[in-house]
Amino acid sequence: MVDDIDEDDVPLVFKRSNTTSKQNQPTLEAKKSSSQKHGGQTGKLVSDVRTSNGQSSSAQKIKTVPSTKASPVKSPMSSSKASTLPRKASPVRSPVTSTVKSPMTSPKTSISPGKASPVKSPLTSLKASTSSADQSKNSSQQNAATVVKEEKRSTNADDSEDSEDDKPLSARLSAGLTKGNSNHANKGLSTSIEGSPSVIKPKIAKYEDSDDEKPLSSKFQAKSNAGPSTSKSYESDKDKPLASRFNQNGSINRDNQLKKSSMMSSKRPPGEAKSSSQSLVKKPKLSDASTPSYSKQASVKAETKTDDDDHVPISQRIKKSATSGSKTSSAQQKVAKPVSSSFKQTSKKSKKVIKKSKYSKSSKVLPSSGEGQKWTTLVHNGVIFPPPYKPHGVKMLYKGQPVVLMPEQEEVATMFAVMLDTDYMSKPKFKENFMTDWKKILGKNHVIQKLEDCDFTPIYEWHQREKEKKKQMSSEEKKALKEEKLKLEEKYMWAIVDGVKEKVGNFRVEPPGLFRGRGEHPKMGKLKKRIRPKDITINIGKAAPIPECPIPGESWKEIRHDNTVTWLAFWNDPINPKEFKYVFLAASSALKGQSDKEKYEKARLLKDYIHGIREAYTKNFVSKDPTKRQIAVATYLIDKLALRAGNEKDDDEADTVGCCTLKVENVEPKPPNVLKFDFLGKDSIRYHNEVEVEIPVFKAIQQFRSGKKGCDDLFDELDTSKLNAHLKELMPGLTAKVFRTYNASITLDDMLSKETKGGDVAEKVVVYQHANKEVAIICNHQRSVSKSHSAQMLRLDEKIDELKGALEELKTDLSRAKKGKPPLKSADGKPKRNMNPEALERKIAQTTGKIEKMERDKETKEDLKTVALGTSKINYLDPRITVAWCKRHEVPIEKIFNKSLLAKFAWSMDVDPSFRF
DNA sequence: TTCTAGACTTGCGTTCACCGGG
DNA sequence: CCCGGTGAACGCAAGTCTAGAA
């Protein structure tokens, strides 16, 4: 399809200034400057909100509570990178936001032994690319060069970068426009944007050609002059998503109400797309791979069916399967294999096919194919229920006196007691809701009337003892328990969809408990009642046997045979009966994989339209039609800052917002052209960022705010359905969330291509993690700081100081040794062994290296303490970008994807090494 | 056109399992 | 052999978006 314009497409990366950019940027000033030219138009981020750590000031701390998580950050990257960029980088970055600061560090991770073994190399080889080594080297080198440049730009530049980035779209667009022409035309959508109808398409076409293909930045440059804003230096920016550029300041913090604080900066992305023609075309895989992914999977599964294996390490899986018995083996293997083989595939495939055994249906067409029809035959065993409540008989106290409770009453009291050490205890709403529901069970005349007079500690302590007991069990006992559980659940773990055995996602019915809403949820603490068979609707193939109800004497609510949906069962949410809880297939299933692939294809399609879309909304910033103006500005924010759409919410939900539901008080204009965003988004995660925007956007926001109160809607003419209806006119199937996927993936693709230089696998992994982090920042994916984070940092400091002390001592010894004197006694007065100067020098070098590594690790840890890398990897980054990059650079895919991801992305494993998003 | 039921994706926190170091 | 630290797996809350009814 498209031609390849790859280059173009590339990227724009948006970097958000801070983070990433920082890192890279170290040097970049030069570039910046260029970029800066643009000037202001774009939005750069102004401030950096994030503090270095990421926490933003305000927000920062708030969260404490929740976090319990043990391990805070992992440190992904590190060393290598560092190496590359001199450490300096770090310093630089740090300033701004923490996040950004240091790139990653810890090499170790990357290398990790574990999985690697099996597959690793294969990939590379497969790629065929050519001789690997050499090629890679070359490429790497090349990259390096490029990289360097970039870095420079970015570096500090955050701002500058940002600016460019900021400029982003608009700028780009404009530029593009100016250029005009591109050919592209691609698709022709018909769209007209609001006012300007058809415009888009045409434009698009044009851009694409030239511009699109190239990264924005490049485009810009070329054009640069063109638009006002635009011109700015896109270069750097372009690449990065707008967001990134913006971020600079941004710190995002989650505040969750109070607690969390995190700060990351925000970022936003702008990105552009590149088009790649190929992509469309995509070639199938190298080797045999040709088989469509799905088909593969299917086949695979059938044969091997490794499903289980998924869990198991790749290498092991195979064995296991063998060992394990029947079904598992068969089913499981499949999944796993793809992975392991990394790219080999061929062989596998063949094998798989062969086996298939009972289920195979390789042929099956993918689900989506049929209109609306998701499957033809569906067999499964229903769901499993949690065990009934076992009364413990421990008495809580009321006004100091033990109280006897009926089992149902005790059950609810225990739910509360178990949460005594959580933050929820400091939330009045939680206690109030709990008490209201508990009282219903206690009855009106129960002695227990007020929560304040209750003392749940006896139950809490009993629970702690039980936990401790469990922990103390011997490993054999634990293993036995586990096996017993597995035996019980096995039959529920699998479904057979069109003849293929697939894993079921969540076959366990949720146990009763107290609702743990995030943020200031009005329903927190309410009793989530026990779900019974009569609450559950089962969906299954007509020919399949109806699952037996696991609870004797009870029966399912309803049996359906609807093949236009993918759920196997559902029940109404006890907290909000209007909503449902579904049982779906696992992420590794073909059904999910297919829809995942479609999601990324749609995002890639946006690449071909993005120029025109940006151009159109830029034009509409000054539209006379207020609705059009709001749509234009909202689209700009979604594109540049990666904001979510923002559906309307009910009063009985936490008060969070997205783009369409932003309130006047959430966006503060700071002349001349900076917008300060501060609001709680999904999961009550704070989005706090200051961004430079184009003047028309700034003016439009000021106008939208005028005459309104702080709590009024900023976009009073808009809602998500209007916005999406408009987006659909621009590109088939386009919705607000596609921009997030697009910007995330294009950023990864761009950063990987620019920053992958030579180096060993560990260094390349660091590059990947760096890119991953950038995306996480753009999408504002945060995590709370682990409770033990500060203690861990202190411990690291101590170790570093200790090493430094040892280093000094070694140096003293060395100078004495050179003079032929014996070493001084150690601090504790003991004499030390007499070492020769060479040995001492070796030891000094060793210690120095250790210190440097620890410092890098520490920096990375601090840097990532509030950034969650997993969410973007699972949901926003097209796995084909990663797989192709691994093949091109001979990085074992297992270094990047864990077992779950390998299974989930089985459909992408045979991508051509030349694939670009 | 608006509202709402319905279906599915996204996302953070917790728990689990494992691993290397003392 | 215990233990802290960690990544993976799990759990479930909270979004997005569509389609059809009102």
UniProtKB/TrEMBL annotation:
Coiled-coil intervals, chain numbering? 463-491
Any GO molecular function: DNA topoisomerase type I (single strand cut, ATP-independent) activity
Q: Where in the cell is it found?
A: Nucleus
Q: What class of enzyme is it?
A: isomerase
| Gene3D superfamilies for the chain | 1.10.132.10, DNA Topoisomerase I, domain 2, Topoisomerase I, Chain A, domain 3, Yeast DNA topoisomerase - domain 1
Q: Where is the composition biased (Polar residues)?
A: 16-27, 49-83, 95-112, 122-145, 179-195, 218-233, 245-255, 288-298
Give the Enzyme Commission number.
5.6.2.1
Task: Give one Pfam family.
Answer: Topo_C_assoc
| Residue ranges, compositional bias (Acidic residues) | 1-10
The record's catalysed reaction(s) read:
ATP-independent breakage of single-stranded DNA, followed by passage and rejoining
Source taxon at top rank: Eukaryota
Alphabetic keyword roster: Coiled coil, DNA-binding, Isomerase, Nucleus, Phosphoprotein, Topoisomerase
Q: Where is the composition biased (Low complexity)?
A: 321-345
In what ranges is there compositional bias, type Basic and acidic residues? Answer: 205-216
- Residue ranges occupied by any DNA topoisomerase I eukaryotic-type domain in the UniProt entry: 514-890
One of the GO BP terms on file: DNA topological change
Compositionally biased intervals (Basic residues) = 346-361
Q: What does this protein do?
A: Releases the supercoiling and torsional tension of DNA introduced during the DNA replication and transcription by transiently cleaving and rejoining one strand of the DNA duplex. Introduces a single-strand break via transesterification at the specific target site 5'-[CT]CCTTp site in duplex DNA. The scissile phosphodiester is attacked by the catalytic tyrosine of the enzyme, resulting in the formation of a DNA-(3'-phosphotyrosyl)-enzyme intermediate and the expulsion of a 5'-OH DNA strand. The free DNA strand then undergoes passage around the unbroken strand thus removing DNA supercoils.
Name of this protein: DNA topoisomerase I
